[in-house]
Specification:
mainly beta; Jelly Rolls; nine-stranded antiparallel sheet
């Protein structure tokens, strides 16, 4: 992991100016992904509306993976558990009135001792992948360095399943990895902690940073909400794979069922076999702006699907700790 010295120019260019960029119908390393202001993607209730508190949602044919943390032990159903010294992850009550069930995942990061942690799951991919999770930042939660990430690896087994991990500051080649993360962005302390939602993405057509390295390119919208601490919210994002040789890939995200941003023109990959096939549910703290020594984030009702998921039903905001 790295300390991001600078966001790419995508962070600074207004969405209206990006609309003036040429369309990227064919693969072009210089093509810039564009926002879609008149997106027709759904919003509001989704497939989760049939499954209160996500009970039974894993059996829906459109669902690839789901975990509402209501049964089993910590990490059951996941492939990797990042829980340093057993002091980072725990299963706790999400709080009265949350509407999320009896248990959720709690991530507690301690500056100088660990960087937080989380869970990783590899899965059989699809042409379009949706990821939805519910999240609550503690009332005193500070700036977050990295968050929930969808990664593409060459395969699901052996060394190939790790090809999408690492590579900070390096430009992907297009056949080994790409990734996108929905995460809070503090804007060097200008946004109140933990920040505002945005994408942080790596792919072989990405732009370099002013220091000449390839830190993740950021995608945000002026309507992206400042994150309210102390309450549960639904966060969802989508990635549509490109056709190799064309820049026709997409990504979008929703907060509490409201579509916030949608971008097209990504050449995520050069190879048909490279697909987004690993989800890391993570809260990672090392940012130089982070001052609070202990930072807590809770997750619940995680779903990976082939269709829009929408927020869990029977859910109300919770102000309990």
């Amino acid at each position: 992991m790295h300390h991001r010295p600078m966001r790419s120019w995508f962070q600074a260019v207004p969405a209206a100016l990006l609309l003036l960029l040429p369309s990227a119908s064919a693969e072009d390393a210089s093509a810039k992904p564009q926002p879609i202001p008149d997106s027709t993607l759904p919003q509001g209730p989704g497939l989760a509306a049939r499954y209160p508190t996500d009970s039974g949602i894993r059996d829906d044919p459109r669902v690839i993976f789901a975990d509402n943390f209501e049964r089993g032990r910590l990490g059951d159903g996941w492939d990797e558990v990042g829980n340093k010294d057993g002091a980072v992850l725990s299963l706790v009550d999400p709080g009265a009135g949350s509407g999320l069930g009896r248990r959720c995942l709690r991530v507690e990061a301690h500056l100088g001792r660990d960087t937080g942690g989380g869970l990783t799951r590899w899965f059989e991919s699809a042409d379009t992948v949706f990821v939805r999770f519910h999240v609550r930042f503690a009332e005193d939660c500070d700036y977050v360095h990295h968050f929930v990430t969808l990664r593409a690896n060459r395969g699901l087994r052996g060394g190939d399943r790790w090809s999408g991990f690492g590579g900070a500051g390096l430009k992907p080649e297009g056949g080994e990895r790409f990734s996108t993360a929905l995460e809070p962005w503090g804007d060097w302390g200008r946004n109140p902690p933990p920040g505002r939602w945005n994408f942080y993405s790596y792919w072989h057509g990405m732009a370099p940073s002013p220091d000449g390295k390839y830190w993740g390119n950021s995608f945000s919208e002026p309507t992206s909400p400042t994150i309210t601490r102390g309450r549960w919210m639904s966060a969802e994002f989508m990635l549509r794979h490109n056709t190799p040789g064309k820049a026709d890939g997409e990504q979008a995200f929703w907060i509490d069922g409201k579509r916030i941003g949608h971008w097209s023109g990504f050449s995520w990959r050069r190879s048909e076999t490279l697909k987004a096939n690993a989800l890391t549910l993570e809260s990672y703290f090392t940012d130089r702006w982070t001052k609070n020594p202990t930072n807590v984030v809770c997750f619940d009702n995680v779903v990976i699907a082939r269709a829009y998921i929408g927020p869990s039903v029977d859910r109300t905001p919770s102000e309990s700790p």
